[in-house]
Amino acid sequence: MTYTAETWPIACAMLPFGGKDSTGGPIQDAPASEWAKHLSLVSKLGFTEVDPTDTWVRVGDLSEARLREFAQVCADHGLTVPAISTSRRSVMDAQRGDEYLDYSLRLLDKAKAIGCDMVSYGFFQAFTPAQEKALWFWLADGHVDDPARRDEAIAKTQQLADRAAANGQQITLEMYEDTYVGTCDEAVAFLKDVDRPNVGLNPDIPNYVRLHRPMEPIQSMWDKVLPHTNYWHVKNYLRDEDPASGVVTTFPTSMEAGIINYRAAITQAVAGGFTGAFLCEHYGGDALGNIARNRDYIRGVLATIL
Predict the structure, then answer these.
(1) Are the C-beta atoms of residues 187 and 150 closer than 8 Å to each other?
(2) Which 3 state secondary structure label does DSSP give 233?
(3) Which of 52, 93, 181, 232 could form a disulfide bond with 187, CB atoms 3.0-4.6 angstroms apart?
(4) Which residues pair with 279 in a beta bridge?
């Protein structure tokens, strides 16, 4: 499909809403009127696309009746769902991996039922106690994937890819530190070993940029992963490195102000054939306001290159 700057799908992340409704109960089980309260705000901020990240509503766990309600609420607010992202439900979880694989397969079918042809998966797992206590969770170490189980991870990803292919869908793998797609080189190698044409990368390299660790040059990362990108989580961080002490500091900021030059990255991606949707994320402060401003920034960049 050929998009213009105004029609390119740019989705709002539902992460800022959390998993509670207005009464403090689980949004998953809330009446559709509670979903509408959140989606109404998304629409009023000017969005026409939404990614119902499963930290908000688990689309894969909705009954057929509830799924119809969900689709109707989205339609009532002029919102389409170009993709659905999963979060911390790794098919490689040592305790719940089989459960999450079943969920991940089920999600593909539920996504297809509401006209969504892209699902984003990741191998990152539940927060550790240290991450839960930290001001920013990325300041504490999280789960590290076991290299000895990499072949199993490939086989499970192939299983997801084959179900998606049968549905006419694509899947994408969110890049995240210390997982099987934890560096750009590892992500590209993993994708090659999965060897399915409907699998791509979600190059969320800000997940690497925010770490207080040595960092591969940003342009080098884009050069490796943009040719494989089919869905794109975008956000940005400021980053400062003191060469004398080795101290690194990072914190969230707008796409335009951060260390990643998204004007250059988006230009490179589109020139290379990228036609996927964007998902705007942000942590801290007025996350939704930042997400909306980032959407406008992306449209402005697209207007200069299309």
Answers:
(1) no
(2) strand
(3) 181
(4) 11, 233
Residue-level pLDDT at 121 = 98
Give CA–CA dist 138/207, Å, rounded: 8
CA angle 140, 231, 62 (to 5 degrees): 80
Q: β-pairing, 278-280 with 84-85? A: unpaired
**Coil, strand or helix at 252:** strand
* Whole-number Å distance between alpha carbons of 169 and 108: 8
- What per-residue string of b and e applies to 235-255 under the rule 16 or more CB within 10 Å gives b? bbbebeeeeeeeeeebebbbb
**What pLDDT, on a 0 to 100 scale, did the predictor assign at position 1?**
73
Tokens for 110? 């539920």
Calpha distance 14→148 (Å, rounded): 34
Cα dist from 129 to 51, 96, 133, 137, 141, whole Å:
28, 18, 6, 10, 10
Place of tokens 């076991």: 146
Place of tokens 């490195």: 241
Would you list the DSSP string of 15-73? GGGTTB-TTSSBGGGS-HHHHHHHHHHHHHTT-SEEE--TTT--GGG--HHHHHHHHHH
Rounded distance between C-alpha atoms, residue 173 and residue 157, angstroms: 9
pLDDT tens per residue across span 204-222: 999 999 999 999 999 999 9
Q: Alpha-carbon distance 255 to 86, whole Å?
A: 22
φ, ψ of residue 143 to 5 degrees: the values are -65, 145
User: Distance (Å, rounded) from C-alpha 281 to C-alpha 235?
Assistant: 5
- Retrieve residue 76's tokens: 């009532």
Q: How confident is the model at residue 157 (pLDDT cuts 50, 70, 90)?
A: very high
Q: Are 29 and 56 in contact (CB under 8 A)?
A: no
Would you say 138 and 128 are in contact if contact means Cβ atoms under 8 Å apart? Answer: no
What is the rounded distance in angstroms from the CA atom of residue 80 to the CA atom of residue 290?
Answer: 21
In the predicted model, what is the mean pLDDT of residues 276-281? 98
What tens digit of pLDDT does each residue of 127-155 get? Answer: 999 999 999 999 999 999 999 999 999 99
